[in-house]
Amino acid sequence: MRIVATVVFWLAAVAANAVDVDSLSADTLTAQLSGDNQSVRKKDIFHRIGDFFTRYFRDFNETDTTYIEPQHFNYAFMLQNTNSYETYSLTSKSGQYVSLSPDLTYRVGPFFGWRWIFLGYTFDISHLSNGHNKKEFDISIYSNLMSVDFYYRKTGTDYHIRSIRPGEGQKTIRHLDIPFSGINVGITGFNLTYIFNHKKFSYPAAFSQSTLQRRSCGTALAGIGYTRHSMDLDFDKLKSAFGHLTEKYGEIPVDSGMNFDQVKYTNFALSGGYAYNWVFARNWLAAISLALSVGYKSSEGELKIAEQIKQDFSFRNFNFDGTGRFGIVWNNTRWFAGMSAIVHSYNYHKPQFSTNNTFGSLNFYVGLNFVRKRGH
Hints:
By secondary structure, the chain is of the alpha+beta class. Helices cover 17% and strands 55% of the residues. It starts with a strand and ends with a strand.
């Protein structure tokens, strides 16, 4: 049985719960950090340090409570179902198009939270009897001020060819289900997003349930991102897969532009977008967040054909990518339930070859908070 670990750090709860900023005075920090209240010199140094951190935490955590209600409990327990999906498309210069995707992955597991830390495991129930060597690890960090997504994905051997277009202007053959073990794709990266209207808009209310959005509000977004993609394609296996179509559609030759051993992409991106939290009823929230990024891509490829094409395949250019988040949640501070989704799309285009990779996850969850915080 393959176990996938997912760690979600509820940094937003730091803003509401983990640190009592009002009681975090400079004198308190001075006493804690110096350990020597008799030394005036040390007290002055740590007093300044205390002032700095007090101001930092106060600014980082400050929210408008008419829009955002903080968490009232220390602990949380949640059950979550995560469904992962991925597609990969390849297009050659001649217009030949191949779309591939693996089997859907279904995972379930428990999570336990303490203030701003939320840990858990999800078990892959879609491949209990056979392994496909899939590896997936995700970390999401949400606070009112910013969010960070880290992800690592490594495909297994359960890819299928879903559609083929033999060439430019020709009809696309859809709804195929041809097993194909000749592709191996890996993705590693992160996205960092800054929320401008963070005192009134709460990302955690929609995606980590650690605060409550009480009034509808939107915000502009800005961010940076980095991804590293690698892809291995077995040309002989691709030709063999095309052979399954001969009886019904006639012979379809594989474009020589698909004949490469390995391609690696690196992407640095700047993004901008908008997010909106809609409070459509008491304790209910619907959220949408869309960001478009301009990425600078560099790629390395080993083509088995002409040197000219090989040089064309090594490129540095700009392309547009996108990230979307969607969610709906019911939260009465004690109990919560809902769903959330995050989708990433990356594009690479050059005259000889282009790719698109889209992957994401859909989560369903239910949970409760317990052990009320002092003063709440």
